């Protein structure tokens, strides 16, 4: 009788454990000890992790990057046309000054935009530059979110706190994405990783 009761309790506990595990948010992926959630909520919508990878320069790891979309996409063109919110998450792997990060940002834009394209978003680029100027430095472990929220614009968060004002032009956010998934990406191995390619 006792054995039967114990078996029943064990079965119940096992069932509860399985049920709980199905409701817990899963950590979809990990790279060099940095974990990225399977889904995040941005602008009231659930976004899925499209891909993640590591930005390296020479032999140094600079940051881990994850791209979140409303639905998974595998080409830059499809990503640019996604309706709804989007998110790029950068987790710093080393310390950088705001000047170093800002210079890398501008290099990425210059490499992937024509002069005509840049001229259309010059005021937004300037506004984003002010955001970098307000951040003294980025430290190892810092988490930077760059979000596109329809009706709000490009919004930046550092360690959960909003930084600067929103930038309202979708063309500007797409220009930012081209830093990583454009024709001349900042890191040739990071681009396919963000597009969901499996290593």
UniProtKB/TrEMBL annotation:
Residues 1-28 form the signal peptide. Keywords: Lipoprotein, Membrane, Signal, Transmembrane. The keyword Transmembrane applies. SUPFAM superfamilies: Chalcone isomerase (SSF54626). Coiled coil: none annotated. Residues 28-196 form the Chalcone isomerase domain. It comes from the Bacteria. One of its GO terms (molecular function) is intramolecular lyase activity. The keyword Disulfide bond does not apply. This is Lipoprotein transmembrane.
């Amino acid at each position: 009788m006792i054995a039967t009761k114990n078996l029943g309790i064990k079965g119940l506990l096992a069932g509860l454990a399985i049920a709980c595990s199905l409701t817990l948010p899963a950590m979809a992926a990990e790279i060099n000890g940095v974990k990225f959630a399977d889904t995040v909520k941005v602008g009231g919508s659930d976004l899925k992790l499209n891909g993640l990878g590591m930005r390296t320069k020479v032999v140094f790891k600079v940051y881990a990057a994850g791209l979140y979309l409303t639905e998974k996409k595998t080409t830059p063109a499809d990503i640019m046309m996604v309706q709804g919110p989007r998110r790029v998450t950068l987790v710093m792997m080393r310390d950088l000054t705001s000047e170093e990060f800002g210079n890398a940002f501008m290099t990425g834009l210059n490499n992937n935009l024509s002069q005509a394209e840049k001229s259309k978003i010059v005021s937004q680029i300037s506004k984003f530059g002010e955001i970098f100027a307000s951040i003294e430095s980025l430290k190892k472990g810092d988490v930077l979110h760059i979000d596109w929220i329809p009706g709000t614009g490009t919004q930046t968060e550092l360690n959960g706190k909003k930084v600067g004002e929103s930038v309202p032009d979708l063309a500007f956010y797409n220009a930012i994405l081209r830093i990583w998934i454009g024709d001349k990406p900042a890191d040739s191995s990071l681009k396919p990783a963000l597009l969901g390619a499996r290593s």
